[in-house]
Amino acid sequence: MAKTKSEYRCSECGWSTAKWVGQCSSCQAWGTVSETTSVTKAKPAQISSARAARPITDIETSGEGHYPTGVQEFDRVLGGGLVPGAVVLLSGEPGVGKSTLLLEVAARLAKGGKKVLYVSAEESASQVKLRATRTSALSENLFLATETDLSSVLGQIDQVDPELIIVDSVQTVSSLDLDGVAGMPAQVREVASNLIRVAKESSTPLVLVGHVTKDGSIAGPRTLEHLVDVVCHFEGDRQTSLRFIRTLKNRFGPTDEVGCFEMSGEGIIEVPDPSALFVSEQQTSVSGTCITITVEGRRALRAEIQALVVKSSSPQPRRVTNGVDSARVAMLLAVLERRAGLSLSDRDVYVSTVGGMKITEPAADLAIAIAIASAVKDKPAKQSLAAFGEISLSGEIRGVTNPALRQSEAKRLGHTNVIDSSSSQLAAAIAAALS
Question: Residue 146's CB: how many other CB atoms inside 10 A?
């Protein structure tokens, strides 16, 4: 079979060259030249009557929807489970637990009677078997293959005829029919396209593991994310055992859900009620803390905001954040100084969440402000207090989405004193929280 010719093309102006360069010689843009395959003029094919385009009302569907994988937190993120023929891309940093999670998914489906093919292009069969033994993921319906060649992977799929295919990872599989080593954009595109074609033709779910670059984006061409149906990101701090899985794209379900897991010596454990993980275990009231209720998809989570305010020894006070947006905290400090009368311009301010949780929604503004005010005044907030609300530059507390869900979760967890947008002004809310 003839090898496909590769070239490097500028994504801005279309200029091409035989080798990679950092700057386009035509439009002078930097970082826009990437590898691509040469395109030949395609001729129209003869379409048979069986494949002719038909009115959409005449198309017959199988009627099959989501079917659960057995891992409920993973099903939550997928929108109810796997869809026949769907292609899922799971990305994450090295060592976060992607292979462990997918091995658990494969084992539960295999124990449920489905035939699963797990293709490992990074580890040997014995290494995967050791991990499966440790996590009790052994099943006769779970087939394991260690292949790095695309043709061999396709041959394994034809031989096993599985009901679920897992490829770990797409960046380590290469095609001998294409120039370049595994992981290059052209190779990743070729491998992914062929695997996706097989999955669609056989209506077999396919899960691809994807590497990430140092800035956190998925390695390989951007086209990879467009080809697949679902893009999930597995994240977590290596210093803690907590892991989160989020959807960045989902053609069959919501994109705002989050699944929570905990890594242990026996494998990965689902955490169906993670609210207790994001608060400190200290029983006594301490200044500089406040509880808030965040919403991830249809799930309400309790989180604790901690703040520390100390006298600055430098002309430029420090502003250090962890788990919250630093720009948002800087804005809240200005509002607190102007609207609530707190002197913060000569003090170092540290704001952090508990348990490694990351909060991006503005509903946490009020809890952050109360925690900072509590630290400044050295007066603890009430233990039964929970606060949520967005703060404007005028000091007004605005309403947030899903207030009833947040109120219900706060009540379930014993927070009888809830401060939200019903307290219209920030100064009054702080006074009520610290009274």
Answer: 17
In whole angstroms, give the CA distance from residue 42 to residue 422. Answer: 64
- Residues 190-227: pLDDT tens digits? 999 999 999 999 999 999 999 988 877 888 778 899 99
Instruction: Collapse the DSSP code of 149 into the 3-class scheme (helix H, G, I; strand E, B; otherwise coil) and give the result.
Output: strand
Longest dimension (CA), the chain: 80
How far is Cα 359 from Cα 306, in angstroms, rounded to an integer?
13
Omega of the bond leading into 25 within 30 degrees of 0 (cis): no
CATH class of 276-433: alpha beta
Q: Are 116 and 109 in contact, with CB atoms under 8 Å apart?
A: yes
Q: Taking the domain 67-272, which CATH number applies?
A: 3.40.50.300
* Residue 423 pLDDT greater than 90, yes or no: no
Residue 148 CA to residue 150 CA, distance in Å, equals 7
| Burial 337-362, CB ≥16 within 10 A → b, else e | eebbebebeebbbbbbbbbbbebebb
